[in-house]
C-alpha cells in the first residue's frame, strides 16, 4: 500500500472543489449557472497582443526552448512598466524575473526562500497560494487576521513578538484578493519599517494593481526608500490585459531574492513559449487604452452588482479595487456559514460564488463575488437572489431536514 505523501498531508482538500463539483453536476443537468466563483476574466485579450503572438508563432524557430527567467526584451518591458507606472528604476538583468503567472512565481519564490520550519507571516483571509506555497516548501504559517489593512499590521506586530523561531517573511497583498481592500504608500512605509525592525523579508503581491476605481492608482511597495533591500513584488498581466490563460507574471525587486528564484526556476522550467513572451512584451510596450477599457468594464459591473443586489435585499460593500466584491452573508444565512450558503445559492438560485472560508478561517461570514459576468447576467443573478432570499426560511429548513436525515 502506498503511504500518504508528506506534502500532500499538509494540504487540506481544496475548498473550492466542493462548490465546483456541485456546479459541474448542475450544468450537466442543464441548469443555467451564473458563475461569479472564479476570477477568470471573460473579456478577450486585446487584438494587438493576439496579433503579435500569431506573427511570432509563425517563425519556424519559435518552438525552441525559451529562457527560464524570461527573454531579455520582456524583462526590459517589465522594468519599463515599473519606471512608467511607479517611478521605480529596475535592472532587467538582476531585478526582474518573468514567471509563468504570478501564482507560479509566488510558489517558486517560496521554494527559493524557505528552510524547513521557517515562520511566515501571512494575512488571513488571503489567496490560498500565499500560505500553501510556503507550506509546500516546508514553512510554518503564522496566520494574522486581515479584515482591514490596519488590523493586519497591528496583528503582525503582535505575532512577531511571539514567534519562535523568529518570522523570516512577511506577506502583503493589496489590492487584496479576496477582500478587495486598497492601501496607500504610507501602509507600505509602515510595513517596510516593521519588517526591518524584525529582520524579515517582504513579499508583496499586486496582481490587481491596474484594476482600481474610485481611488488613486495603487502604489508599489518598491516606491518606499530602501524597500529593495528586503522586498520583492509579484505582479501579473492576467487581469490587466485579460491574459489569465497566457500565464505571464513577474517577480521584481531585491536582486538576491530574484537570483534565488531564477536559480530554482532554472531547474524546473524553460520559461513560457517564446511567442507568448513576445506578445506580453507588446502588451507592456504598446498602447494602454485597452487597460483603461478593461478597468471601466469592471467598474460598471461593480456598480451594477452593488445596486442590483441592494434592491434584491443583499447589501454588498462597494469594492475600491480588484475584480471582486467581498460580501457579508445575508443575515438569514450568517449562522449557516459561507460554505452552506454558497451551496444553497447555487442549488436554489443558480448563482455561484466562492465561500469566504476557502480563503482562511477569518474569511468565514463572507463570500467572494467575481466581476466576471456581463451586466445583463448580473441583473439576472440579482433577480434570482431576491427570490432566494424571499424563501430563506423555507430553504434553510429544508437544508436542516436534509442534514438530519443523513
CATH class of the largest domain: Alpha Beta
Return the string of H and E elements. HHEHHEHEHEHEHEEEHHHEHEEEHH
- Compute the average pLDDT: 93
Distance between the termini: 31 Å
Which residues form runs of ≥5 with pLDDT under 50? none
Strand fraction band? 5-15%
Furnish the topology, listing elements before pairings.
Elements: H1 6-9, H2 15-28, E1 34-35, H3 47-57, H4 72-86, E2 96-99, H5 101-113, E3 119-124, H6 128-136, E4 140-145, H7 149-161, E5 167-173, H8 185-197, E6 201-205, E7 231-236, E8 249-253, H9 255-268, H10 274-285, H11 289-312, E9 324-328, H12 338-349, E10 351-352, E11 354-355, E12 366-370, H13 375-390, H14 392-405
Parallel strand pairs: 1-10, 3-4, 3-5, 5-6, 6-7
Antiparallel strand pairs: 2-8, 7-8, 9-12, 11-12
3D architecture notes:
The chain is an alpha/beta fold. The mean pLDDT is 93. A 7-stranded mixed beta sheet has the order 2-8-7-6-5-3-4, sandwiched between helices. It is 45% helix and 14% strand. The chain contains 14 helices and 12 strands. The longest helix has 24 residues, at 289-312. The protein has 2 domains: 6-44 and 290-400, Aspartate Aminotransferase, domain 1, CATH 3.90.1150.10; 47-285, Aspartate Aminotransferase, domain 2.
